[in-house]
Amino acid sequence: MTPTDHMARLLPGVSLCAAVSLTALGLARLEEVAFGRAWLETLVLAILLGCAIRTAWRPGPRWKPGIDFSAKMLLEVGVVLLGASLSAATILAVGWELLLGIAVVVGVAIPASYGLGRAFGLAPRLAVLVACGNSICGNSAIAAVAPVVGAKGEDVAASIAFTAVLGVVVVLILPLLAPLLGLSAGPYGVLAGLTVYAVPQVLAATAPLGGLAVQIGTLVKLVRVLMLGPVVVALSLLTPRQGAARPPLSRLVPWFILGFLGLAALRSLELLPAALLGPMATVATALTVLAMAALGLGVDVRTVARAGGRVVGAAVASLLLLGVVSLGLIRVLGVG
Prior knowledge:
mainly alpha; globular; UPF0324_pro; cell membrane
C-alpha cells in the first residue's frame, strides 16, 4: 500500500474524529459564554459526543482505520508534545520538600486507589485507570496509561467520563471547604494542585482564594503531571505479558514516554525555542481531543453504563483517599 493509499484509508475516520472534536470545542465555547467558564472541558465533551454517536450508529469498516489511528498514534504524539510544557526550573520552584511530598502522595495514592477499585469489583485494568486518573492528572493520565496496560476502549471511556464529572464537582466544592479546613491561600493551593484533575480546573478551583493560591496550585499540579512519565514506565515493567517472554527494556518503555521525557529535558536545558512552546501546546491539546473523540466513537455507552455504579464508587473513594493523604502532607510539611 502506497503512502497515498494509506492516507486515503485513514481520512474518513480521522475526518469524523475532527468533526466531533470541533463540535466539542464549539460546545465548550458556548459554556464559557453562558457560564463564564467551561465546566465540561473539550476533552470530556469530545468523548461524550463520540459515545453518543457510537450508541446511535456503529461506524463501519470505512471509518475504523482512521478512528483507530486517532485513538492510538495521534494520542501518543500528543503525549510526547506535553513534555515541552514542563521544565526543571518550574519543578524546583516548589521546594525539594514539597517536591518529594508530591511524589510520595502519588506513590501512596495509586496502589491504595487500585486496591479500592478492586474492592469495588473493578477489573484490574479499569482499576489501574481510575487510580492513575485520580492520583496524577485525570484524562491525560488515563489516556497515557491505557495503551501500556492494554485497557479496552470501554474502560478508558468509563474512567474518563466518571472522573470528569467528579472533577467538576471538586472544582465547585473545594473552595467551600477551605474555611472549614482552616486553609489559607498557600496550603489550599497545594491541596487543589494535588487533588484537582486538570490544570484549567486547578485555576478555577484556586481563583476564589486569590493569586497566591493560583500560583502554588498550578506549580504543584505541573509537578504532579510530571509523575506520569515514571508511573507509566513502572507500569510497563509491571504489566504481565501473557504467553511470551518479557521483551527487553528498550521495548518495555513506550516510545511516547521517552519522547515526553526527552522534550521535558530539552525544555529544562532551554534548547527549545520559546516561539515553539505555544504552538506545541496547542497541537498537543488538539491531538488529545481528536484521540478522545476516537475513543468515544469506539464505545457504546450502554456497555459503559453497566459498570457505572462500581466505577463511580471506586472513583469517589479514591478521590477522598487522595484528599486525606494530601491534607496529611500539608500538615506534616507545615505549609502556610
